[in-house]
Amino acid sequence: MWCKASKKKHKRWEGDAVLVTRGRTATLKDMEGKDIGKGSGYKVSVLASLSEGETLMIGGKEVEASKPFCPPTMLGRADHPGSKPEDEQTCRPRHDPLAPGALVMPRPSPNHQWSNNKLGLPVVDVVVDPYLTTHLRPHQRDGLLFLYECVMGMRAVACHGAILADEMGLGKTLQSVALAWTLLKQGPYGGKPVAKRVLVVTPGSLVQNWGAEFSKWLGRERISVFTVDQDHRIEQFLLSPLHSVLVISYEMLLRCLEQVQKVEFGLVICDEGHRLKNSSIKTSSALSSLSCNRRVILTGTPVQNDLQEFYAIIEFVNPGILGSSTAYRKVYEEPILRSRQPSCTDEERVLGEERAAELSRLTGMFILRRTQEIINRYLPPRLDWTLFCDPSPLQRELSSVTIPGLLHSTVKERKDRGSVESSLYDGLVELFPESYSSGGFNTADSGKLLVLSDLLTAIRQLSPSDRAVVVSNYTKTLDLLQDFSKAGGVGLNLVGASHLVLYDIDWNPANDIQAMARVWRDGQKKTVHIYRLLTAGTIEERIFQRQVSKQGLSGTVVDLGKGAEHTSFSTSELRDLFSLTDTPSLTHELLNCTCSMDGSVQAVVQEDEQVSDRPVPARSPR
């Protein structure tokens, strides 16, 4: 092991290295074979007798021998007085378990030793590298302990999978890097590393991000990460013994599956693992075909749309623990969903709650879910605004929630083609002004465009140094908004901006939650403002209400006790889904709210309650 020369009592070791000696010269090389230190003038006897625990200065680097050193001339000589049989050598932890702040992994139980230590090797403490420990916050230390117990099979018999379902911004990547590094270098039995190589599968846009994260937390000297892209082919990884981590996209995995299957991985990490929400898709089948049973899914949204998707990711990390898909649907999914219908009976509600609690208890052994609340004290304030925008007169005539420019373009294109469907659009073109052109847009044609324009102007005037991010799920909408900017998506950190506008919303709440979480995370210094724009009285409000219901379903299983009352629309609500309601806010009416809709909150006091002298503060609309 080596580190920069220091007089500190507790050394901050940088990583492993190889010491090459020739006569009175010594060269220090990192694990990639690069020279990192060189010295000369040593006594040959000193270099030849270097033993475990002894230190040496090599070109400004301090080196400590971590294994008993045997000179090349003595290799293979059983009669050498300093040699001992391997089983007699003392196994020591890689790092000091008694050092202040040391993070020591749990020791295996007697049952675990009986099942996993057939050779009877001595049990050694696994201690997280102090270089990483200094960066870990309390919840991340707990997360690393959880992941280690799961993948080592210490939480449930024959189960080696885990789902780290922390909300965005809690450091799932850092916890994963720490887990991978620990397993690559250490193990509880004789100190033998648990994994020789680690596979990280991630969306294509994040492949390079993962490579950068490993370098950020460990440095390039300690670990060699191979990222598959156009310039780095999988064949290079297969031929090189230097790389211990392979980072590949889900799409590239399918193309290179045959080559990936040749590698023995000790750990598989799937980032944005909710992509595996359907066990029948090719990606899930490809990953399941790998022989590695230590599988970790990272996702901030373990339940996105329904409980079948939840079953799929559980089945991937710990196959068979919930039984067959049919049994799961009958025992858990159907009773839980029935209990959340507005028309459910008391018996159905009680049964559903019991099954939800049972499912949460069973999966809770290997799912860890922490919310943003635990790091709020590290972050600046955040204000969420849901803005209900009045439709423009043109939108009311069209009874459409799309941007008029998009609709005009579609109608004109289909009529010009003489499409069979053109009859559906008969009469719509005539509603547009004669001067209307879809080449640009007039903010007066859309209620949301008016709000967005005024909002960005106000931000620029009040806080000239603040930056704003405008997010949309649709590329054609972005084409119309190209005068403003756009960013978002998964895994991105946009803390340079403190205002985020979600221009349109998605049926899947996970997509919106991820986009909104990009600016309120570690590194953010300013107060964050999140604006969600909805056209009042339209389908967008119904989508918003559906999102609330889906998040309630997630709360029923993953965040037990945080569920919403119901998860479905009634029949009449579904029938009315696409109608345009003349109202300032349909959601406001459904809540039976008595506020004046100007951002202030009016105090409502029951006759038998004592009136408080404390004023009611104004708050941002939710």
TrEMBL record:
Work out whether the entry's keyword set contains Nucleotide-binding.
yes
GO BP annotations listed:
double-strand break repair via homologous recombination; reciprocal meiotic recombination
GO molecular function, a single term:
helicase activity
Q: Which Pfam families match?
A: Helicase_C (PF00271), SNF2-rel_dom (PF00176)
Give the record's keywords alphabetically: ATP-binding, Helicase, Hydrolase, Nucleotide-binding
Q: Listed GO cellular component terms?
A: nucleus
Outline the extent of the Helicase C-terminal domain.
Answer: 419-575
Q: Where is the Helicase ATP-binding domain?
A: 153-320
- Per its UniProt record, what SUPFAM superfamilies does this chain match? P-loop containing nucleoside triphosphate hydrolases
Which InterPro entries does the UniProt record give?
A: Helicase_ATP-bd, Helicase_C-like, P-loop_NTPase, SNF2-like_sf, SNF2/RAD54-like_C, SNF2_N, SNF2_RAD54_helicase_repair
PROSITE patterns referenced in this protein's UniProt entry, alphabetically: HELICASE_ATP_BIND_1, HELICASE_CTER
Keyword flag Transmembrane: no
Q: What is the name attached to this protein's record?
A: DNA repair and recombination protein RAD54B
The organism of origin for this protein: Larimichthys crocea (Large yellow croaker)
Native organism taxonomy: Eukaryota, Metazoa, Chordata, Craniata, Vertebrata
